[in-house]
Every structure is written in structure tokens, then in C-alpha cells.
Amino acid sequence: MSHSEMPKNEMPQTLDGWRQRAADLTFESRAFINDVFVPAASGETFETVNPATGEVLAKVASCDAADADVAVSHARAAFEGGAWSRLAPGKRKRVLLRLADLMETHKAELALLDTLDMGKPIQSALGDMAGAIGCFRYQAECIDKLYGEVAPTGEEALALVLREPLGVVASIVPWNFPLMMTAWKVAPALAAGNSVILKPSEKSPLSALRLAQLAQEAGVPRGVFQVLPGFGHTVGKALALSMDVDCLAFTGSTGVGKQLMQYAGESNLKRLYLECGGKSPNIVFADCKNLDRVAKHAAAAIFHNQGEVCIAGSRLLVENSIRETFIDKVVACAETMQPGDPLDPDSFMGAMVDETQYRRVLEFIRQGQEEGARLRAGGQALDGPGLFITPTVFDGVTPEMAIGREEIFGPVLSVFGFDCEEEAVRLANDSVYGLAAGLWSQDIDRIMRVTRRLESGQVFVNNWAGGDQTVPFGGVKQSGNGRDKSHHSLQEYSELKSVWVSLSS
């Protein structure tokens, strides 16, 4: 069968197959407002670029405050109309399950959009699609399984605790896991009965617009789900300041998260959920078994998705008695994780998302060397049209160094040594962030002690980034608040209402 005859949704298996599929793609680039694809009110557009080639993929509608106002008004009208917000839970479930099925049917296309748009390897993007689809299915199945409460009272009253949708939810999602982060925000908000306005990153808007087409096909009512591509300082700011947006859910940098908190306070004191930055510690004790396996996981924890991961294990804390041996193993693993064509199923790493991020990462590498850290691997930009950086390992890092303190969001690993458990905990907690932490040990007593002392929203023991839709995801300290995934996220997109009924004797 030739490539041109390949069924639209068949999964390519080779680089040539994915290139052919990419050549056949068409891109929706207009905003999705009130069930219609339209240009931005201003007529303005921005270019979205394939960072692996420099090719302009599409000119996308650049929405601003005028578009936000229109979308919010339609979202409010849809919510008050009740076609979704008051729809029986079982019927909402069926619509979201149809959407998940459509995403499954178009899994290859959706993965390809994210790979082309932000440079991640196609195999990684396919994994993201499985996560996104699983999220929609999980949240859909939760809809009719979370009950209200009857509070204990005397015989003179009946007290009910009801859960109701919040109203209009604005979701602002990042570029590093475009559709998966979208699912984590949009699926529970829709499941709870809200109207949702999605603002995808201007660096990766294409899969969000394709999702809008699928949501329409699945039967999500008019005005209930809308997509506004554009920039944070224009349409994102307008949504955050809107007096008619009831909740803002955001994943992105801590700096932007702080700004959004100010906007929420300046406007209507809207509910705000933030999943922000991280500088996650990955602690390896000398009692670990199979250091080769641990080293492979430690390398993948930072080099997966080019290090453009909020929970990347960017601080590797290794007990000094095994540090030299372990670093050698990590460096050997890094050699097998080099960047390549994102469309090649064998590529472990892809391209940095854009020129700005590319230059930022290279500057951190330069600064690390200048501050005295020892470069053990990588640190180079590859020649060619794409924005590729090799996996980089620094040893001898201290908390005062920029590479040991700041979120780089690239393939740069900082290695610290420690001599005892107390020092390991102190180093791990010596950060403004608290999104994730890893712990490798065979000593169950130590595992329980250290796990309880780590200041982190999640701790991975003898693994990195483990979990599924049943466990919540989120951070503490300046990594934010609120939780994605699990039934806890569905609850966060609903409001409690207490009802006290007096009963006549």
C-alpha cells in the first residue's frame, strides 16, 4: 500500500510514513467561538512554526480582549441556558465519552499536530494522546458517580450538601504538553457542567483547534467549549480580568501565575488554580539495587521531552559514596538519548520549542560553566535548521548557582552530592518550588521518613513520574495550588451549596 493510499487514521511506523502524513495535513487556524470558526475580531494573526525545520505551519488567529468579551458572553449564555449545565449527568458522560472515542480515532493526527507545532518526538506525543484520551474517559465516568451529601441533623430538619458547576471557566494551558494539559483542565471542567474557554499557548495552538472540531462533532452544545488562540498579555489577560469568568485554571510559569493572582483580585475574586514551575529533586541513596536501571530513569527524568517538563528531575542528589560511579552511568545513558528528527519513531529527544527557549537554555549552560560547575556531558547546540540541544550533565553544582536554583526548562541536569539523609532532605527542600520529588532506596524506614519530610505535591519512590488518572497532580510552595487529574479535579470545578430544610413536626 502506498503512503497516499494509507487510511487516514492508520498509525505510521516509519519516519517516511510520518513525513507523508505530515505533508497531507491541513490546519484549522481560526478561533472557535460559539460553535463557529472565525478570524480574530482585529484580523490579526501570528505564525506558528515547526522548530525542527523553521517551517511556518500556519498563520493563526490572534485573539484579544474583543474576542474574549464575545466568547465570555456566549459561554455565560450557554451556562444559563442549561443545555449542558443542567443536562443529566449520564447524558454529559455520553457526550464526553464520544469525544474521547473521536480522539482515539484521530490519535495519530492529534499527536502529529503537537509534534510539528512544538518539536516533541512523535512517540512522546502518542503517549500524550493516550493520557489525554484517558483523562476524558476517566472524568466522564466520574460524572455520575460523585454524590452529594445528607448532613446529620435532628428530626426537625433535612440538611443537603449539593455540588453545582461554577459557571464560566477559562483554561490557559502551556506549550510543552499541548493536548494533554488541555485535557487535564478541560475534561473535569466540562464534566462538572461548566462552560469552558480554552486559551492554548501561542507556541502550540493547533491541536486545541482540532479538539474543538471533535468536540463539536461529539455533540458538545453551542457556546459550551470555545478556543481562543493568542497571546497571554492580550487575550489571556482579558480572560483573567473578566468580571464574568468564574474560575481560571492555569499551567505555566510561576511569574505568570503570580500575575494572574493579581488579575483575579483586581476583578471578581475568581477562583484560581495554578500549576506552576518546578526544580524537582531526584534523590539516589547508596543502598539502591541495580544502579544501571536507576541511572536510566534519572536520565529520562530530565531529558524526556527535551527537558521541557514541569516535573523534570533537574536536580539529581546522589550519595557521595556512589556519586562518581553513578554519574558515569547517567552520562552513558545520556549518550543514547540524543536529539533527532521528531518525526522519527526512534528519536528520544526533539527540538526546543522556539528560538527564545533555545537561547535561554544555551545561556544557562554558559552560565553554569562560568559559575564553576563541571560539564560532564553535552552542552552543545547541533548544526542545522532545527533548534536542537544535546543532553547536558553538570556535576559539582551548589544551590547558589543559577543552574541549581532556577527552572531552565531544557535538557540540563544539575548533580549535587550529599553524605547523609539529613543533608539530602535539606538540599531537596532548598527551593522555592515543590512540584515533585523522587526517592530511590531499598530501606523502607528511610523511604517513609524522607517521603514525609519532602516539601512536594507528589513523591515518586523508586520510579520517576509514575501515576495514572486516579492520583492528583499538583504542587506546593511556588509551584502553585489546586490539583489536576483524579476525582479531586472534578470537585474543584464545582461549588458546594448547603441547603437546610426545616421539617414541620
List keywords for this structure.
single chain; 505 residues; alpha/beta; Aldehyde Dehydrogenase, Chain A, domain 1; Aldehyde Dehydrogenase, Chain A, domain 2; 7-stranded mixed beta sheet; 16 helices; globular
Written account of the structure:
It is built from 16 helices and 21 strands. It is α/β, with parallel strands linked by helices and 505 residues long. It has 2 domains: 3-276, Aldehyde Dehydrogenase, Chain A, domain 1 (3-Layer(aba) Sandwich), CATH 3.40.605.10; 281-469, Aldehyde Dehydrogenase, Chain A, domain 2. The chain has a 7-stranded mixed sheet with strand order 14-15-16-13-12-18-19, sandwiched between helices. It has a 5-stranded parallel sheet with strand order 9-8-7-10-11, sandwiched between helices. It has a 3-stranded antiparallel sheet with strand order 5-6-21. Helix 7 (206-218) links the parallel strand 8 and strand 9. Helix 2 (65-81) packs parallel to helix 8 (232-241) and helix 3 (89-105) packs across helix 7 (206-218). Mean pLDDT is 96; it is low at 1-5.
Q: Considering the protein shown, what is the CATH homologous superfamily of the largest domain?
A: Aldehyde Dehydrogenase, Chain A, domain 1
What is the total tally of β strands? 21
Give the amount of beta strand, in percent: 15-25%
Whole-number count of domains: 2
Strands side by side in the biggest sheet: 14-15-16-13-12-18-19
Which spans have pLDDT < 50 for at least 5 consecutive residues?
A: 1-5
Looking at the structure, the CATH topology of the largest domain is Aldehyde Dehydrogenase, Chain A, domain 1
Helix content: 25-40%
**Cα-to-Cα separation, first versus last residue:** 79 Å
Give me the number of helical elements: 16
Structural class of the secondary elements? alpha/beta
CATH architecture of the largest domain: 3-Layer(aba) Sandwich
Q: Average pLDDT, to the nearest integer? A: 96
Q: Cα-atom Rg, whole angstroms?
A: 23 Å
Oligomer: single chain
Overall outline: globular
Largest sheet: 7 strands, mixed
CATH class categorisation of the largest domain: Alpha Beta
